[in-house]
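Treating backbone geometry as a discrete language has practical consequences that deserve illustration. In the encoding step, the backbone of a single protein was reduced to a row of integers, each denoting a local shape. The amino acid sequence and the backbone structure tokens for this protein are reproduced below.
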Amino acid sequence: MPKVQFLGRVLPSAVVVSIQGMPTVNWESPDIGLKMSFTIRIDNSSIRVERDVTRFVASDAVHLYMRGFDLARAAVDLASFSTGNGFSVVLDTFINPDGVQSPIVARDESLSALCTAFSTDPARQKDFNEVLRIVITEPPLFMVLNDLITAITFPRYAAVNCARAVEGLRHLIAAPGTPPPQAWAQFRQDLRAEETYLKLITECSAAPRRGDHTHIPGQVITEITRRAWTIMNRFLEFRKRGNKPLPASEFPPLR
């Protein structure tokens, strides 16, 4: 069977974590029919996740990463619980069955095209600075933004984080105390987003927000993230335009 590995570390480095004798874990991904056998070693805060897989193709890497991260995080979370330390897990190196190492970067390049409100391109520095001023002066907004970035950094939390981000933006648009039905109506009108477009985001998060972590297919998570990204971009355009409803000539309805 092919063998792949992920390497990483436990942070902060000031506290050394070692967990010995962890059992091998067998796992099957229902999305792609891939069977995996995981062995995790944590020694002096260095993490090595080894797994035997029934096959290996490049497109399987994200599934392998997610499962490996989940298991390493579970072990480290137990260490956190028993010691009262807030540990974090980073897996930053992938080794394929041929022994070739490559860095791991949490990335969905398709999302870049959805960000039109600003850019990190030096030619658009003015736009970036304008949006930065908006974000850093509104703490609830930079918390919402962080929810979205966490959604792509840790896909396991994408459904909940994307829904929380969208609901957070709704609170930022509506006046305090506005009943939810009226707040959602204003939100949809100002950002030109139809109810059906938002429902996928909010409804898919209902189960995990209530503690039911039933599997959500990867393609659904991808679509939820894409829609939440689009809504955030429109909200930033809304703020840049002095909190005025977005014009139909530039922003067609999101359906």
